[in-house]
Amino acid sequence: GYRSRAAFKLIEIDDKYHLLKPGKTVIDLGAAPGGWSQVAAARVKSEGGKGKVIAADLNEIEPVPGVGFMVLDVTDPDAGEKIRTALDGARADVVLSDMAASATGHRATDHLRVIGLAEAALDIAENTLNPGGAYLAKVLQGGAGQELVTRLRQGFTKVAHVKPKASRADSSEVYVLATGFRGAPADG
Ligand code: SAM
């Protein structure tokens, strides 16, 4: 079984957009308790196949076979470097972020926080993705925030908001999906 109901959201999104193909390398940010990692590992076949899943969260998880997990605050300045070390010279094909901060109940504050986490995931995506790669991140209804959308449109060929049915109807979460990464910005 899956460790989280969230697993069904990723299944639904991936059944439609086919991001998690066999052999792909995936980074799963905000991975605890590990439902998305289970789905990603099965689909890229990271156990015994060529695919690879690197996962990170503030909290420890029970090991998921085929998943390289680390405890990490994705907003730490050295988070990108730690992820790149775990990739061991490889680049990623997909960066997933289901990260969420605990709700304050203050709508604007919660919105800013989740955007901040999505931006931290984008920092990592920009530094690790292969050209053509994809980024999927949780945001809140009302969208991804103008700055984040602008960055995504610059960096990727296609940007869309996705609301899986498995996301409860009363839940304010949506996901932003960016595909066709144009390549890392020039160093400098
Ligand atoms: N996708 C997961 C699954 O299927 O099991 C569920 C993820 S849960 C909704 C959100 C996670 O984001 C929490 O485990 C939380 O610890 C993590 N998170 C929040 N802020 C984070 C941060 N700054 N760095 C890393 N993880 C973070």
UniProtKB/TrEMBL annotation:
Keyword Signal: no
Localization, UniProt: Cytoplasm
Leader sequence segment: none
Top enzyme category: transferase
EC number: 2.1.1.166
Reaction(s) this enzyme catalyzes, per UniProt: uridine(2552) in 23S rRNA + S-adenosyl-L-methionine = 2'-O-methyluridine(2552) in 23S rRNA + S-adenosyl-L-homocysteine + H(+)
Binding-site residues for S-adenosyl-L-methionine, renumbered to this chain: 34, 36, 57, 73, 98
GO cellular component: cytoplasm
Active site per database record: 138
Residue span, Ribosomal RNA methyltransferase FtsJ domain: 2-181
Entry GO MF terms: rRNA (uridine-2'-O-)-methyltransferase activity
Principal place of residence: cytoplasm
The organism's place on the tree of life at top rank: Bacteria
Keyword list, A-Z: Cytoplasm, Methyltransferase, rRNA processing, S-adenosyl-L-methionine, Transferase
Main function: Specifically methylates the uridine in position 2552 of 23S rRNA at the 2'-O position of the ribose in the fully assembled 50S ribosomal subunit.
Family classification: Belongs to the class I-like SAM-binding methyltransferase superfamily. RNA methyltransferase RlmE family.
Protein name: Ribosomal RNA large subunit methyltransferase E
Organism classification: Bacteria, Pseudomonadati, Pseudomonadota, Alphaproteobacteria, Hyphomicrobiales
Span covered, complete protein: 52 to 239 of 239
